[in-house]
Amino acid sequence: MNFWQPKIETMRKSDLQDLQLRRLKDTVKRAYDNVPFYHQKMKDLGMKPGDVTSLGDAGALPETKKGDLRDNYPFGLFAVPKSEIVRVHASSGTTGKPTVVGYTAKDLETWSAMVARDLTMVGCTKDDVFQNAVNYGFFTGGLGIHYGIERMGAMAVPSGTGSTKRQIEIMIDFGVTALHCTPSYALYLAETAIDMGVADDLSLKIGCFGAEPWSDEARSELEEMLNIKAYDSYGLSEMFGPGVAFECQEQNGLHIWEDHFLVEIVDPEGGLCAPGERGELVLTSLTKEAMPLIRYRTGDVTYTMEDDCPCGRTSVKLHRFLGRADDMLVVRGINVFPSQIEDVLLKMPEIGDYFQVIVDRKRHGLDEIAIKVEMSNSAFTGELSDLARLQKKVESELKSVMKIRSKIELVEKGTLPRTEGKSKKIVDLREI
Ligand code: DLL
């Protein structure tokens, strides 16, 4: 099977919309007939599946929130008998029960074909040796990407996480040409390869990174350190997992697969955002059998880009994610995204790649931001006056972007924790 699928990927908008409407009707009916949660929600709204006659009607359908998955833990949102489920994944939140997702055999096929399509889009072929350096387990990034690699026909190297030096040796010994992991782990791998003095022995060409927000600056660093082209990969367990939206070789926005998902971007009041207007991504699955989700509030902030993509694909593109709506820090009434901080810091040559933001509520109830920042090796002269100057410089650059003052603490390279999965850049000590 060929995973460059021009018939779908370059489909005329009107044909795509016909396909979406057919699939939306199916999905709504499946949910109404088989999932008591949706049956009740639609009943409360006075809706029947037959009321959906155009894509515009989707806006009247009930929303689904992460809490609804928790409330129906573990299998309450499945639309098929348990005997039809061939796999589950789960993601653990910070509180309470994990959220569980299930797949039928057909779901797994749909998902691996979607990932194969993504990998083909960024130029992978069956000749690639593809290392998947993420956690294999409940996290969808492991098995999800793994089966996509195999489906496309490349050689999967399921290294998982951990033993970072060993991972680098494997990359060299096996002639690994493509890598998938989180951007934070990619940075750690790159740093380790450089420290081992073997960065030039790598044969990497392509990096696919996702599962957490990362900035354009981080991309440039990774491309330079690993001598690759680095692509952004977006997904969430509730919508299969990785592969939902992926950059093409233009590296300018992520194509979201509209044959599988209906896309809305909404403002905090739930109103639809115009193209280019920032809001929360809301997705309706169109092909999921085991667990169809209607108008799922992803919590992720982005906007749609309407320009035609030179690659020829017609599916709408999402701007790289600015963070999660609930990751956004509101400090003294000002909205701050960790990605903004990352953008500023990584542009400064004196600063290394790691930082940690600590928000605390001090006397008189005022919030304060302190940022621990690792210096690059070259910036560490040992002169106290140099350090003070650098500290002031970082503070003033951040203030000009964030509009609020932060307290910078410069620390030596290697001080802050490295991570193999999703990094935790924010520590919020406020009791709100
Ligand atoms: O992180 C699936 C995945 C695995 C995506 C590997 C890409 C690569 P969850 O653990 O359910 O699934 O977490 C989903 O991670 O709602 C976003 O907040 C965040 N996220 C995922 N990809 C990106 C990205 C996987 N490229 C949550 N940029 C999502 C920013 C991302 N945030």
Automatic annotation (TrEMBL):
Question: Keyword annotations for this protein?
Answer: Ligase, Nucleotide-binding, Phosphopantetheine, Phosphoprotein
Q: Which domain of life is it from?
A: Archaea
The record ties this protein, via InterPro entries, to: Adenylate-forming_Reductase, AMP-bd_C_sf, AMP-dep_Lig_C, AMP-dep_synth/lig_dom, ANL_N_sf, PA_CoA_ligase
In which pathway does this enzyme or protein participate? Aromatic compound metabolism
Domain AMP-dependent ligase C-terminal as annotated: residue spans: 333-430
Q: Which organism is it from?
A: Methanothrix harundinacea
Q: Which Gene3D superfamilies match?
A: 3.30.300.30, N-terminal domain of ligase-like
Q: What is this protein called?
A: Phenylacetate-coenzyme A ligase
A single Gene Ontology molecular function, please?
phenylacetate-CoA ligase activity
User: Source taxonomy lineage?
Assistant: Archaea, Methanobacteriati, Methanobacteriota, Stenosarchaea group, Methanomicrobia
Sorted alphabetically, which CDD domains does this protein's record hold? PaaK
Q: Name one GO biological process term.
A: phenylacetate catabolic process
Fill in the subunit field for this protein.
Monomer.
Q: Does the keyword Cytoplasm apply?
A: no
Give every AMP-dependent synthetase/ligase domain span: 84-283
